[in-house]
Amino acid sequence: MGIRLYQEPQLENPILVAGWPGIGNIGIIAVDTLRGILEAEEFGEIEPWDFLYPNRVLIKKGVLEYLEFPSSKFYFKRTGGKDIIFFIGEEQPTEGGRMYAEGRKAYHMANLVLDVAEKFKCCRVYTSGAAVALTHHTAKPRVWAVPNSESLIPEIRGYGNTVLMSDIEGKGGHGNITGLNGLLLGVAKKRGFEAICLMGEIPIYLQGLPLSYPKASKSVLEVLSHSLKIEVNLDKLDELDQKVERRIEEFYQQIPSEIRGQLDRLKQVTDAQPAEPGPITEEEEKRIMEDVEKFFKKRGGGG
Amino acid sequence: MSQGYPIKIYKKPRLQSSSLVLGWSEDMSNLGRKATDYLNWKLKGQEFAEIEPEDFFPLGGVAIKGNLAQFPESKFYACREHELVVFQSGSPGAEWYKFLNSVLDVAEHHCQVKELYTIGAMVSFGAHTTPRQLLAVVNSAEMKEVLSQYDLGRDMDYQTPPGERPTLNSFLLWIAKGRNIPGVSLWVPIPFYLAAVEDAQAQKKVLSFLNERLDLKIDFSDLDQEVRDQNEQLARVRSRFPQIDDYINRLESNLMLSEEENGELIKKIEDFLREGD
């Protein structure tokens, strides 16, 4: 069990950008879109069989031709100065029917990813994911940034459309990042890598839907490309966003009007200055959450 | 054998060149468990090893089935006279690769297994009066050639549909291929209304093949009687409930039933076979 590198590219001051699927697939879409735009080259993988169950079998004329596993691949791109290594995991190695990776396997996989970062002397690690927020789907999602070192905070303060946990009302600088997108940040800290997790906001009422949320991926990519000092054309992400937006709007119209009325009030939340008291009181926030929860329970899923 | 694998060997099975037959105990129609139980009974299989459950099964309590507390078991039996190893187990819920390699470690290093056969069932939308078929998937072209002399469906084309996952049998066959162990995954399509009860015809079909292929010399008179009993019971349901007879007639004419009709047929048959008349 381990890493297979097909080649060992010479890289200059590389940074690692990693992503796994999660809520709204915000992180993985951001990372994979950037990988695609930059035409990064595949150079290795983590052998899957100890971590993941196969996802496809092909039988031809009665002969088992091959068994395919979810991929966990490394790519590289030379950018002239700060090169990039991408890691994209198609699936998180979950155990016991849980939704996100945790425990021994997750820790092992995070360490394997960082083994590659160490081998190529990466100077920084980025991960990405979703921030479930009291926000509306018509608003531009902000990016919540969580660094693993105090020294990164001034840099993050300079990013546009980005907040720290201490800027989020009611969070007091605390929170939790579930799964490998979060765990990698912690393991990186343990092993002495500086790392930042960039999380795109997804409205609380969309978190349980089987839909991606490319609008938030775009916000993440804007921050990431600024931080990496590279220019990227995000037109493809806009196209995807428009398609998803139509489906979200259809879903939104199915929500009973009294709950929708409450949710409409969220349009104002993200317009507020992050550190100022929001236009929705704590009591109203609680009521919105309860209404949304009731709606999803009645629908028999989601949430 | 790989280090750290949770295998317990009670006694050496003393086999020279054996075959492994594997059945999962929570299979459709209990086919895997019934077929492996039958082999052990008829061929005097002796338990000689097991795989410890803690890495592979959720152990947060016990399930209760038929008034009894259950516990996951993964056991090996040796039928020495016939150079046969039988493995019967619940389906693991974690560490599948390690589990399946453990099975092959015991087979290869303690039993000199030269080929393996897995037993599985799949849903058929045909009637129970249609003779059962046996389909085979192999992990090498050579094995396919070997099977050409048997009455098997050997030309299956299949690709996992989106949202579904390959079976453990396919996973095992793939690992066996990597270890150069020829393997066959045997599949019996079972009428959908017998999926939750036992199907003696399906058992007979898969066991007859194994009997012929492995030269086991089993006398099937008792199983033949079970097949006759099952057919008689199903004939009685049809004569007692005209609606059920109509549904089965339609299936016999290759017509599809509605979802509601399927549900009614399943319930009536299951109730009747479980409670008897």
Averaged pLDDT of chain B = 93
Question: Could you state the order of secondary-structure elements of chain B as H and E?
Answer: EEHEEEEEHEEHEHEHHHH
| Backbone shape of chain A | globular
Number of helices of chain B: 8
Rg of chain B is 20 Å
The total count of strands of chain B amounts to 11
Strand-and-helix sequence of chain A, N→C? Answer: EEHEEEEEHEEHEHEHHHH
Beta-strand fraction estimate of chain A: 15-25%
- Number of continuous helical runs of chain A: 8
Radius of gyration of chain A: 20 Å
Largest sheet of chain B, order of strands side by side? 1-3-6-7-2-8-11-9
Instruction: List low-confidence stretches of chain A.
Output: 271-278
Separation, N- and C-terminal Cα atoms of chain A: 36 Å
Helix content, binned percent of chain B? 25-40%
**Overall pLDDT of chain A, averaged?**
87
Secondary structure: number of strands of chain A? 11
Structural class of chain A: alpha/beta
Oligomeric form: heterodimer
Question: Which residues of chain B form runs of ≥5 with pLDDT under 50?
Answer: none
What portion of the residues of chain B fall into strands of 2 or more residues?
15-25%
Strand adjacency order, main sheet of chain A: 1-3-6-7-2-8-11-9-10
Provide an overview of this structure.
The complex is a heterodimer of chains A (303) and B (277). Helix content of chain A is 35%, strand content 21%. Chain A is built from eight helices and eleven strands. In chain A, the strands form two sheets. Chain A has a nine-stranded mixed sheet with strand order 1-3-6-7-2-8-11-9-10, sandwiched between helices. In chain A, strands 4-5 form a two-stranded antiparallel ribbon. The longest helix of chain A has 20 residues, at 235-254. Chain A is globular, with a radius of gyration of 20 Å. Chain A starts with a strand and ends with a helix. Chain B has helices spanning 31-42, 96-111, 141-146, 168-178, 200-213, 221-240, 242-252, 259-275, and strands spanning 7-9, 18-24, 46-51, 64-65, 68-69, 74-79, 84-89, 113-124, 135-138, 158-159, 183-191. Chain B is globular, with a radius of gyration of 20 Å. Helix content of chain B is 39%, strand content 21%. Chain B is built from eight helices and eleven strands. With 277 residues, chain B is α/β, with parallel strands linked by helices. Classes of the chains: A alpha/beta (303), B alpha/beta (277).
